[in-house]
Amino acid sequence: MASETFLRDPDPHPSVAAMLDADRSEHGFVMNLTRVWAHQPDVHRAYVALVTSAADAAGLSVRDRGVLVTALASTMGDAYCSLAWGGRLAAEVGEATAVAVLAGSDEGLDDREQALAAWARAVARDPSGTTAQDVDRLRAVGLSDAEVVAATVYVAARLAFSSVNDALGARPDAGLRASAPPGVVAAITWGRPIEPDEPAERS
Fold this sequence. Notes:
By secondary structure, the protein is an all-alpha fold. The chain is 67% helix and 0% strand. The longest helix has 23 residues, at 145-167.
């Protein structure tokens, strides 16, 4: 099977096949990032458990998660998650607002969402540069200290996920470009290029 990553194909194993089959069922193709993480199915399961637990503990909706990941991915220059989550965010808030988050203006978000986006960018840009005032802004929009911690774990875990994908050469999938709004695709001018529209066999 062809792969738009720096890695060879993972060794055959039922857990690997399950990951690939899940992608085919959900997306109609195997994502390049899955071809990376299929080398370590147990680690991937642990990652999913961590981000799910953190999102639940922070009370993050799908829309909240879209704001956080789109903001952090665009800040760190990760095209893959910018495209995947920019598209998801557009489905929640509209194309123009998703493009605004990618661009860093956050026009169209409410106060809570703007605070979440600002926090994600601050953690992605310079975690040692955050201030008590940054945390106060999260409290002001209704997050408890426990939820701030959980939201920060979620952001940090997503940064690690993006870092692994980018470092190992996972290119954004052509299928993501096909499903994302044109404005979202056009806004992403950073990171690894999206794979060709007609990649080699993606079995």
